[in-house]
Amino acid sequence: MSASTDRKPPRIGEQPAFRRALIATVLVVTAFFIVAPLIVIGMEAFSQGWAVYAAAISDADTRHAIMLTVVTALIAVPVNTAFGVAAAWAITKFDFWGRRLLLVVIEIPFSISPIVAGVAYLFVYGLQGLFGPLLQAHDIKILFALPGIVLASMFVTAPFVARELIPLMQAQGRDLEEAATSLGASGWRTFFSVTLPNIRWALLYGVVLCNARVMGEFGAVSVVSGNIRGQTNTMPLHIELLYHDYQTAGAFAVASILAVLAVVTLVAKVLLERQGAGRGGRHPALATPQPAMTAPKLATEKST
Amino acid sequence: MKISLDTVVKTFDTFRAVHGVSLEIESGELVALLGPSGSGKTTILRMVAGLEYADSGKIYFGAEDATDIPVRDRGVGFVFQHYALFPHMTVAENIAFGMKVSKVKRGKQEIAARVADLLRLVKLDGLGERFPSQISGGQRQRVALARALAVDPKVLLLDEPFGALDANVRRDLRRWLREIHDELGITTLFVTHDQEEALDLADRVVILKDGKIVQQGTPEEVCREPNSPFVMSFLGDTNRLPATVANGEARIGDATLPAPGVADGRAEVFLRPGDLDWAVEGSGVAAKILRVIDHPGGRRLLVAPKDGGALELDVAPEIRARAGDEGYVAVRRGRVFAA
Q: How many CB atoms lie within 10 A of CB A256?
């Protein structure tokens, strides 16, 4: 028998040459397209030393851009989270006319170029736009100001939370809510004691993704913000501006902040997936009405 | 609490699930809603619970019109087919949930004491700190029941309570549920598609087909006096044979069966495998054995009558029979329905 094992034909897809070639290709492509640029950001940011890096970060316009980005995220992310939960709840727990259509519409921001969204807002709220004259008459500034930036960011990131929750809540069905209600729980009580605990990891993951995208959004915001340095520039816009001003080190310094944010998002994603949610929630084994969650984790969760 | 349904109708988008069902369930009774899938039995149960609203008709709890009382205030205990235990809560927390959210305020110690009582009742002492994912299917079932009983429901409703369990656990749980029912005396309605389960457990069986009640009665009544070919064949294995009725008697081969109330002419005879006997010589339907299947309790013969068709009969273990043998099928009893 042992003699024959050497001559045993490899399983499908396991020929050594094929396996090595495939792994090598993927590694090389990943290194060149994903890892190398990230390393370059870090190296360029510090290429002229700490002092230049610190100066670039503490520049007044840069600080304003960071603040504006944070404020935008602080508004857009909670609003989109609430919207996402509401949309996922409505789509998965109720039957109503247009449910499927709503599912498709929610996904539009994923498939549309963000710049189209920006231009659309321009046509709706711009001076020559639909509500332009009305807004101007009441002295309400939407475009080239914070509201426009927030609206554009929200448009682009609207699907993130809903997209994470819908498959999970669909798999969970309505039984748990029905059980809670039949036991006498109110709507709010059911949501906070039964629905929310069962979607929390997927929800958190959606929020993290949404936040990363809000902070990094360039296209849509660039159209509606007007790019006014120190006033309506978010971090991505500020990076472009610095770059065009030949302030390479400054541009890379700000870019490094966004890159760090991306890495933090990824780490959070991995941690959340380990908690048995996120994209893992779509796995059929985990998407059963009673997800296989481990007890020790839940026990610590309760005590907090 | 007595439950009455008065011509209850429920229509879903595309089809009518329940067509004017009227039903009375006496206080303390254990009643089974039995029917094939799509017969509307679960919809009826959900309407009694208040999880669905009837399009028309009334549902009474005692003398009170409960038709429009929302599920939250209806005071029913509902056990879901897949238990619907809260996966992020322990067994004890699951059972305590109803008491915690209740409008009737209870102290922590009172709740803990009641949870302990209920755990004892469902024979799960010591498992209170486990999570639903850490216990077996049968145990989850019992937790679901304890959780439903914790809120002192006026009515206990169970949707396919044993559907997801394997055969041995199922039989044990059935007997046990009957004991709990007899101990608590709570009016109980359960849904099943398994006739054996319904007959085994219920005081009264309500048989449904296409959203209508076709027959209701004690297990004895529906077994001995099925009122239609559907009930006859749904309750157990049956053989169907064409026959002719004349003067209140049906003729099959050279055997006759009483057929009271069946008009003269063509009819169908329904025979249970146990209603038939096998003899090498004698009278009855001449037939040839195709196959013999042995069971612990006896033998089942698959035979081909000379006139065509096929019959299955259950005979005692000592009967000697082999494939290819010829003989006669004796008809001891059977039911005749007009064709």
A: 21
Crossing angle of helices A146-157 and A114-125, rounded to 10°: 140
Mutate to test the interface with B, among A183, A194, A290, A298 (most CBs of B within 10 A): A183
Residue A288 Ramachandran class (φ > 0 left, ψ -120 to 50 alpha, else beta): beta
pLDDT computed for residue A193 by the predictor: 94
3-state secondary structure of B78: strand
Whether the CB-CB separation of A231 and A40 falls below 8 Å is answered with no
Alpha helix positions (H), A191-247: 196-216, 219-225, 235-244
A190-199 burial code (b ≥16 CB/10 A, e <16): beebbbebbb
φ and ψ at residue B290, rounded to 5 degrees: -95, -40
> Which alpha helices (DSSP H) does A126-193 contain, by range?
132-137, 146-157, 159-172, 175-182, 187-190
Q: Looking at this protein, which amino acid is placed at residue B5?
A: L
Chain B nearest-CA distance from A209, in A, is 25
Spatial separation of the C-alpha atoms in residues B337 and B339, rounded to whole Å:
6
Q: Which domains, ranges and CATH numbers included, belong to chain B? A: 3-231 (3.40.50.300), 237-338 (2.40.50.140)
**Tokens standing for residue A35:** 């890892």
* pTM reported for the whole predicted model: 0.80
CA distance readout (Å), A81 to A28, A202, A216: 37, 12, 17
Domain A49-303 CATH class label: mainly alpha
- Average pLDDT in the A227-247 region? 89
Q: Which tokens go with A82?
A: 């609430």
| CA distances to A83, B286, B294, B303 from B325, in Å | 75, 11, 16, 9
In this predicted model, what pLDDT tens digit does every residue of A129-166 receive, in sequence order?
A: 788 788 888 888 888 889 999 999 999 999 999 999 99
**Distance in angstroms (rounded) separating the CA atoms of residues B144 and B304:** 49
pLDDT above 90 coverage of chain A, percent: 39
Q: Chain A residues contacting B, CB < 8 Å?
A: 175-176, 178-186, 189, 193-194, 197-198, 289-293, 295, 298, 301
Please name every residue paired with B25 in a beta bridge, in sequence order, or none if there are none.
Answer: B3
Q: Which residues in chain B are closer than 8 Å to A293, comparing Cβ atoms?
A: 87-88, 131, 133
In terms of Cβ atoms closer than 10 Å to its own Cβ (0-12, 13-18, 19+), residue A298 is middle
- Nearest-10 crossing angle of helices A60-93, A235-244: 140
Hey, are the CB atoms on A183 and B98 less than 8 Å from each other?
yes
ipTM for the complex shown: 0.86
Cβ atoms within 10 Å of A233's Cβ, excluding its own: 26
Give the minimum alpha-carbon distance from A269 to chain B in angstroms, rounded to a whole number.
21
Residue B44 tokens read as: 């009826």
